[in-house]
Design goal:
seven-stranded mixed sheet, 11 strands, 40% helix, elongated, membrane, hydrolase, TIGR02281 family clan AA aspartic protease
Amino acid sequence: MRRIILYVIAAVLIFLLISAFAGKNNDLDGDSAVHFFYLAALMVLISSGVFAAQRNLGETFRNLSLWVLIILGLVTAYVYRNDAQNFASRITAGLVPGRAANIVDENGFKTVILYRADNGHYQADVTVDGISTPMMIDTGASTIALSFEDAERLGLNPSQLDFTATVMTANGPARTAYVTLPEVSIGGITRTNVRAGIAERGKLGQSLLGMNFLDTLSSVNFAGDELRLRD
């Protein structure tokens, strides 16, 4: 009778582990299989040690139940790790101005969420070639527009460029020089070889993330105080 009970417990544990790690087609992928067999082996090792060390059946089952709860807790934490990361990211983005919340859905698609600033605009810390640069999201700008000062900080040497184009800014017409940025990232979304205009000194107060970046996204949605950028 005791052996039958142990077999039943083992079967239930294996079923729970497989259910937790199985994909949509009830198959274990590579990473999930590794974690499953690791936990299963750990479970067997711990259980065998417990049963070998304990002679009292009641005490044995109490110890085994404790380890079952621990293992199930670890499995649950692993399965819902993305949800926990997404939740933490949104909390941080809501508290830190310009901080983007990075959300990854069940299919692996990335979504960046920005929250409206007190001035009514959406601002983000955009990484240009590894350097964080504060920008305002501007659907009215055809390209990324960098202020002269940001271009200097990024090492683009704007004083040596030819400002041959003219664009309209909030401060009126401004001469612009165009460059190609090797890498531009916002949150977990990255694009390479992105064209950008550099405004002449004093003509642009803040750099802008324009449509030549936004048009590469699958969707750009405004909802209340949120702006969602989907890769």
